[in-house]
Fold each of these.
Amino acid sequence: MTGSAGVRSERTIVLALGSNLGDRLANLQRGITELCGAGLRCTAVSAVFETAPVGGPDQDDYLNAVLLASSALPGREILSRCQQAEAALHRVRTVRWGPRTLDADIIACGTEVSTDPLLTLPHPRAHERAFVLAPWLDVAPDAVLPGYGSVASLLAAVPDRDGVRRLSQSAGCLSLPAEAAKEADSTCR
Ligand code: ADP
Ligand code: MG
């Protein structure tokens, strides 16, 4: 939202991360490092969820997580940041919804609504994707998907929710860059 002085105020940014190629957990952690900073203040990251692929060709299971941030950057700049993070992980686009080292999608930018195909807000498939809703609920139990309702009620209604499994902390977790800098060991919740 832009105020009367033309100054955009901070809003909550919800990013969904996924990886199913190579060292999936390391890819997600590297993605967080690439995304956070320079106007995108990362505030929390969910537990890691292992999920069966939805759509696309036959491929390995994904690890998914949701990253929360606070930012006044325009959505298009955040999308560029996501694409830079994917490029840093050497993501190659061959088939649609094919395997990838990193997928970084914007789920919501505050309450902004956009039908622009280059940046649709909220993300047009978030409401039906358990691999987005489950980690989002994990990190923000009261979250609401603008225009759709509470994340908890959406998750309860999606058919693929049984294809999503929360990893135990010992199996893997992610940390924000600031947390990682404070402790050599990652700071799982
Ligand atoms: P997907 O994430 O659906 O598997 P891609 O990552 O290849 O597919 O994204 C395809 C295109 O979707 C991108 O080029 C981007 O411009 C567009 N897009 C539209 N809305 C969003 C959004 N909310 N988040 C990320 N990409 C989006
Ligand atoms: Mg994407």
Amino acid sequence: MATNRTFTMIKPDAVEKGHIGGILSMITEAGFRIVALKLTQLTVADAKEFYAVHSERPFYDELVTFMSRGAIVAAILEKDNAVEDFRTLIGATNPADAAEGTIRKKYATSMGENAVHGSDSDENAAIESAFHFAGREQF
Ligand code: DAT
Ligand code: MG
């Protein structure tokens, strides 16, 4: 079933550099409604679980260390066609390939430290949202 929600994280690199406000502004100006929001931190175990699909990839350990090194912002976003439109808004995984006007073009510094996460399917959006937010934290 298609839904109109997606899940995002502002990653530790962007939080460290003070870009929470700038990124949330780009998100809301693009027409997304924030329906859940928190500043939190992933444990190493959380990061391993969240990115388990990449556990066989050569960058997995680096990714887990990076994602657990500091605070993140987790959020659930609502909009028609949320998953696909948010992937467009964040831009390519590698900021060198990210289009003008995208969040990663503006704020990402490398393939590994690329400022934001966006769910890649409705199914994963639901799984990732439930990973971070209890039902009473979702509006
Ligand atoms: P995305 O975050 O665009 O969905 P992904 O799911 O393929 O990309 O990978 C998850 C994260 O892992 C990505 O945001 C950054 C990191 N990553 C992916 N490929 C990488 C690589 N070749 N080298 C270093 N980090 C990588
Ligand atoms: Mg992905």
